[in-house]
Amino acid sequence: MPRLFYPVDKLKEKALFIRRDIITMLIQAQSGHSGGPLSCADFCAALAFYEANYDPMNPAWPERDIWFFSIGHVTPVHYSMLAEAGFFPLRDLMNFRQFGGHCQGHPSKLDTPGVEVSSGSLGQGLSVAVGAALGSRMDRHQRRIYCIMGDGEQQEGSIWEAAMAAAHYKLDNLCAIVDFNKAQIDGFVENVMGIEPLADKYRAFNWYVVEIDGHDMDSIVEAFERARALKGRPTVILAHTIMGKGVSFMEDKPEWHGKPPSPEQGRQALQELGTTWEEWSARLDNG
Amino acid sequence: MSGREYRLTREGWGRALVKLGHENPNVVVLVGDLASSTMVDLFAREFPERFIECGIAEQNMATIAAGLSLVGKIPFFATYGAFASCRAADQLRVAICYSNLNVKIGGAHGGISVGPDGATHQAMEEIAIMRSLPNMKMIIPADYYETFKATGAAAEISGPVYIRFGREKVPVVTDENTPFIFGKANIMRDGGDVAIIACGVMVHEALAAAEDLARSGIEARVINMHTLKPLDEDCIIKAARECGAIVTAEEHQIYGGLGSAVAQVVAREYPVPMDYVAVMDRFGESGKPDELLTAFGLRSGDIIRKVGGVINMKSGRD
Ligand SMILES: Cc1ncc(C[n+]2csc(CCOP(=O)(O)OP(=O)(O)O)c2C)c(N)n1
Q1: pLDDT, tens only, A20-43
Q2: Could you tell me if the CB of A36 is within 6 A of ligand 1?
Q3: Is the ipTM of this complex over 0.85?
Q4: Domain of residue A241, CATH code
Q5: Distance between CA atoms of A37 and A47, rounded to whole angstroms?
Q6: Domain range spanning residue A160?
Q7: A131 has a chain B CB within 8 A of its CB
Q8: How far apart are CA A178 and CA B236, in angstroms?
Q9: CA-CA-CA-CA dihedral for A81, A13, A173, B88, to nearest 10
Q10: Is B107 found in the same domain as B192?
Q11: Between chains, do A120 and B49 touch, taking CB under 8 Å as contact?
């Protein structure tokens, strides 16, 4: 399947749909993470509907690009993106975190179509990306590898093992994206364990660094194109985002990292996102 | 036992990888700055384009292997067993086992017989860790030839496989033609008075014990339980029924090792007196391999003593 290359206005609409899915899933499950999924929504929409090459009818299609989440906990955005892209029916989102549903709390490769690798223990994804990129290059395969990380996750030492290896092996088929939302569980990243200057750290590790407003669709698309054009080095897109983006009472509040809105709060959130629980849960139920 | 051939198990692994490299272009080998002691340098020389040096970063190496398997490679990674099983345990658990990825792990330097490097380098927890991970499979071959065959067998199995091998040259107890069937134990000597179920270098000690026991009229069945997971339960149950007493022998911690695994089957299916030759919940220490095997109670004499005990228990019940 060729890349979708949606225009920016359509990508913005997809991002909005994804945010509505996220809130609806969380209201339904009454469990799960709100903040990170909402901050990732824009670049995830661009990845699925502009940048990456895949076939939702054939998740193991050998020609596909490979993208996955090192931050396993952002499953609401992960599953929404997969369902919106057609890997499985939208209605499966309504079983998120429920017994018997395939949408596990954290991504499970053996359960959910389109999940490339199980994750949920932070700090593993960039190494997986290095392996997939090395293996693709051995085969002279054109595929690209995308790995989505968190900013708090940068505190994991294994990330820097992988960062070293990606640069050592000059993996220009690898594009990492950091959801740089400044927040993690115990508070703001700078107070918990500062990671700045993050761009300088990656540059010192010989990466190509693109810093963008992670909610500006034009910049996101351009960043992906710049990464694609670059030869001889891996790229990291530092996507400056806002935790809880799109829902006023969640924005920039670390306490929204890991909890769902109450049904009341969820209704308000959906209203801010231009829909209602009735409308959007029906769309998922019937999708 | 004079004239017995001694060879490195890790050489069996190294040579098998070269063979696999010739047979299958998807076989890829990774190492963490231990190319010659894990003997993957043999592969590196023949297939430099399929050899990935990962440096001293075992968590990264394990998960790079996971990524390689996503794009159709069959990665084999090697490091010391202590690091393969403990440093990279989280990566084995989440990325590799939970995804059931086709990653093969070579854990070198298993057991007390590693010798002078001491406790840090004497991996003795791998059976407990690997057996507890869903989708993981595990082989502990007894000698050079068996390691060669086990490595080849691992390539045929889909999903993660851990192979443990040692540091020292160990007595060769099989030969090129001994069958090796993954998941199926080998009976190395038949007997009906007691069964000695062993793995790794302890198979040799078990055979030596059986020879001595035969001189005093006790016929021991020696079972080489090379596959630790999945365990050949039929063979264990048959041994319990036919021999009525079992001693296990392993170069591993007593808790969670071969003995625990066998006891679980025996207790459920056909309880008989059992005892265990294993490392008694303590760290290793520096010394010569032979010295350590003796000091840690992992000798044929230790097996014989335990055999005496279980046979007494068994006859006490008759
Ligand atoms: C190895 C590991 N340690 C701890 C956790 C628990 N945990 C889950 S998410 C999280 C915070 C992640 O922060 P960040 O990467 O900034 O993601 P965000 O808060 O933006 O969603 C933690 C500590 C984990 N999943 N894995």
Answers
A1: 999 999 999 999 999 999 999 999
A2: yes
A3: yes
A4: 3.40.50.970
A5: 14
A6: 8-285
A7: yes
A8: 52
A9: -30
A10: no
A11: no
